[in-house]
């Protein structure tokens, strides 16, 4: 599997993700500048965390208009894999690849912490290395991480089993139904607020996030 990691002005977690895919998993990885218009060589596109365009207007609202995002949408529609982490999740909702929106945290404070998550779905390439109901711990760092959608959208997400991760125990940001990560209907596009790349190296004291990257890295190019 060949990974590509999108870099916008203001992205700051791109190298962390590259360290996991390129150095820990030994997978081909290249950095994608936001002005690129050809990503046809890639199997997996990751939109990392950070503050794309300084989070002006709304988080992800400007980044969605970058030339590369047209290619990411095409990539996803072809059934290829896309992962949005934190700001990347916000970009995916702004681009219409995932439903809902990420709004200001319930208490209007930036949160930087480690939180327990419950794995809700394991029949996806991304989550196949976890077990149903497993509790993992991942870092979060966001000011606008509260997942919100109207009642019909939430019902559709729940009915279609599109919720991948939920906050377990205390809800840190007020997300509806404790939602921490979702996928599209097909399951090839995932967005999540917690940072799996920050819990992938044993030197950091946790590898709970590594399973996500191992799962997708083990897939064949044509498997969805």
UniProtKB/TrEMBL annotation:
PROSITE patterns: GATASE_TYPE_1. It comes from the Bacteria. It catalyses: L-glutamine + H2O = L-glutamate + NH4(+); N(2)-formyl-N(1)-(5-phospho-beta-D-ribosyl)glycinamide + L-glutamine + ATP + H2O = 2-formamido-N(1)-(5-O-phospho-beta-D-ribosyl)acetamidine + L-glutamate + ADP + phosphate + H(+). GO terms for molecular function: ATP binding; glutaminase activity; phosphoribosylformylglycinamidine synthase activity. GO terms for cellular component: cytoplasm. SMART domains: GATase_5. One of its GO terms (biological process) is 'de novo' IMP biosynthetic process. Keywords: ATP-binding, Cytoplasm, Glutamine amidotransferase, Hydrolase, Ligase, Nucleotide-binding, Purine biosynthesis. This is Phosphoribosylformylglycinamidine synthase subunit PurQ. It comes from Chroogloeocystis siderophila 5.2 s.c.1. It is found in: Cytoplasm. The active site is at 86 (nucleophile), 195, 197. Its main location: cytoplasm. Its EC number is 6.3.5.3, 3.5.1.2. Part of the phosphoribosylformylglycinamidine synthase complex involved in the purines biosynthetic pathway. Catalyzes the ATP-dependent conversion of formylglycinamide ribonucleotide (FGAR) and glutamine to yield formylglycinamidine ribonucleotide (FGAM) and glutamate. The FGAM synthase complex is composed of three subunits. PurQ produces an ammonia molecule by converting glutamine to glutamate. PurL transfers the ammonia molecule to FGAR to form FGAM in an ATP-dependent manner. InterPro entries: Class_I_gatase-like, PRibForGlyAmidine_synth_PurQ.
